[in-house]
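INTERNAL TRANSFER SHEET
From: sequence group
To: structure group
Subject: C-type lectin domain-containing protein

Please process the attached sequence and return the structure record in the designated field. Keep the field labels unchanged so the import script can parse them.
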Amino acid sequence: MSNFTNFRILAPLVYQRSSLSVYFGTVANQEDFADAEDECMRIGGHLPSISNAFENAVVQNAVQKQLGTNFGGKIIIGYSNLINKGFSWSDGNPSTYTNWAPGEPVTAVVGVAWMDFLTGWWNTAAPFATSHFICALPSYRISC
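Return from structure group:
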């Protein structure tokens, strides 16, 4: 489990989902799916759920800004078939959009979704494989 020494909140990339703004923070440490979701929940968020092409691009852009495009690689998103027979989001949001790469998802085995943050395509990975990840953090309106 990471200690968040390399955790960064990316405030400029904010978008509205329903009536809530969502901030993204990337973690330079690498974790597996379960530990990444646990870390996000520990700070009040989740691995991102993506409900349309715009949100996919926002997540992709957030990671590129945080980790750079020269880094390459994939990040863990909150989509898996660990609990259900089909894929579902770890935060409980409905599964209405996917952006699988050609030939994906591999559904013969239990897996989690990773986003290639250079292309935005999703691939399946083993649940215990480690990678960088991003947390979706809600912003709360503060009243005085």
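Handover comment: Residues 10-16 have pLDDT under 50 and may be disordered. The two ends are 36 Å apart (CA to CA).
Transfer complete.
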